[in-house]
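Morning, I've got a small favour to ask if you have a moment. The fold is given in discrete form, as structure tokens running alongside the sequence. I'd be grateful if you could look everything over and explain what you see. No rush at all, and the record is pasted right below.
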Amino acid sequence: MMWCSRVALRVALQRIAVAPLNSLSITGGLPGAVQREMSSLPRVYITRQIPPEGLKILRESGQVQFDLWDSDDVPVPRKELLQKVKGVDALVCVLTEKIDAELLDAAGPNLKVLSTMSVGFDHLSLEELKKRGIRVGYTPDVLTDSVAELTVALLLTTSRRLIEATHEAKTGGWGTWRTLWLCGYELANSTVGILGLGRIGVAIAERLKPFKVKKFIYTDVAPRPELASLIDAEYVSMDELASQSDFLSVCCALTPETKDICNKDLFSKMKNTSIFINTSRGGVVDQEDLYEALSSGQIAGAGLDVTVPEPLPTSHPLFTLNNCVILPHIASASYSTRNAMSALAANNLLLGLKGQPMIKELKL
């Protein structure tokens, strides 16, 4: 029953995020609305060509005038961004833009609302935003399912060595059947560890349970009994998480406390048959220590959807390892999720400009 309730909640949030706010929409093409002088409307800058649902909501609201960096391939150059934000009332950004004191100074005192199309907010200088009284919207919940699905896919790809197997099939390495060739590690009867138990961690465990996982364990800044009860997970110390996990999935936010938390000390305590998965933020992992752990056989494999920097240079040593699968930060990359994120970002911004509670607002 609890599982069904949570699924219903997620679906409801997704519908809310995608639907335009009726109170902010133009209806019937009223002449007064059509003739409204654009110069009197709040100015908004959008730092990326966001998916169409969000742009549609902003365009049809009749509440803002907006300009955007009209590309999805490359981020807006910093110099141009600093010029474009001058005098704006609100800003829609994505995680590639660093919102810091320099940018906020360039924007000036009119900026009152920031809406980021992301669940993470490590690209935002929260103290600077708080100091200036700027409200911040973000987009959690609507991407939980897509991130959980991708995490499971990455885990299976890494543990069952699918990239290696595909390469061998394509390049002539597929010879006679061999007893131990390309053997990997299965989830049945395993212990799965979760570092940072939140909505996404729970969703990952829900998807892994049918694989006959024996036990779920987790660690966090403190026990989270309500969430843990949903997946029958046991709270353990960081050392126990490392030593017991056959599969360790990192789901924590990047904060000063979690930066490089997955380092030599953690890897040295893991089993040499363990699989390490990170779909949170690249900064929680010391990549040099991870390379040493993988290349020395300290752990069996790693699957990463996030790195530092992004994109990771093709010359990086991690790309030389057969037991490391690296994806280009695509955990939320489904059409429905990205549209829901852009719609939620647009609705957060419009509500913020009207002085109303946002659907999802960071409490600074």
